[in-house]
């Protein structure tokens, strides 16, 4: 049955390609939402970028007809901008008629009352708008085309029990996958406990053909050695040049940033596997625009790159200690270290705004706070990959760690990318569950 979908502004900001995800139904955009998009287009960061992309998509569609009267889309649906139906008399007393949300709800109610034979549904990602709209009897749905069920998010490893003979086969040519009941993805890890040898545990990996031992279990990177099971799994993916995309999720103090930074320094500065490291953070526009800050791009980004600076400082301390120089401080500051390699073109710090239109070859790109990206932005980010490049996405997709109001734990670009990438043999993912910072950090992560 054909439905009328009234699209809120936040849906368009979340996914500029929303037009193609409503099958053969009617897409109706209140004119007020176009006005809101216009007011957002100059914002820096993700919101402004997406607002401009929505305009480009609508402009392509308008080449096919008059959008005020309705344009038939290739999938059989229609799209139009609603110029009328903003009469707020349909709303009950107590509603602030001057608020944009109220006016958009009024449009949906008036369209529903105009033709009750066609289901009319408001699509929004705004929880308060959802509450208000349902309170006045309007049907409301979230935008679900790219939502991931969080209880089904891929962890990157499974736990199994095998016989000692089967475990031995892993280290002697590999174990056939038929020995495992679960379906495995390429580069998925196995935490294996022995059936007949109490306390015997190993970590192995499915290489797409067989279950094999880890290659980098005894290695260090920039003086750092992984200290728990999940960190060893992540380290394996980060060090493997055959894996071109790695995602690591985990709470504060789980080690995702320091592991990513250490392996990047090792693979770029020590072994020359890649030519440069590019540190990236998506700057969220809500209160975090960088345009007003003084200085060039590097100066503007410094407040947002603290996690990388902290990681490099900790790594320099670790490397110094490994050399038996515990009582001596390194002869350089973090800023000096980064500036030295920046001048050599070895280290760059970027936001996505500064990355558009570029292709990154021979580069290792680390995207911090990747949970702040929309699926659309994550796709645009990964399509920047050139020859001999590796992308590492790190973040915590919990709702309380997302500042971007247009996404949540189920619809952010990090979890979306993890699910889309898991079937391929050049990708890998690991969830880090343990906090390794301090007893206080562990308590705070668990209890607060």
TrEMBL record:
Keywords of this entry: ATP-binding, Nucleotide-binding
SUPFAM superfamilies: P-loop containing nucleoside triphosphate hydrolases, PIN domain-like
GO MF entries: ATP binding
One family name in Pfam for this protein: PIN_4
PIN domain span: 3-131
This protein's record includes keyword ATP-binding: yes
Domain of life (superkingdom): Bacteria
GO cellular component: cytosol
Family: In the N-terminal section; belongs to the PINc/VapC protein family.
Name recorded for this polypeptide: PhoH-like ATPase
Organism placement in taxonomy: Bacteria, Bacillati, Bacillota, Clostridia, Lachnospirales
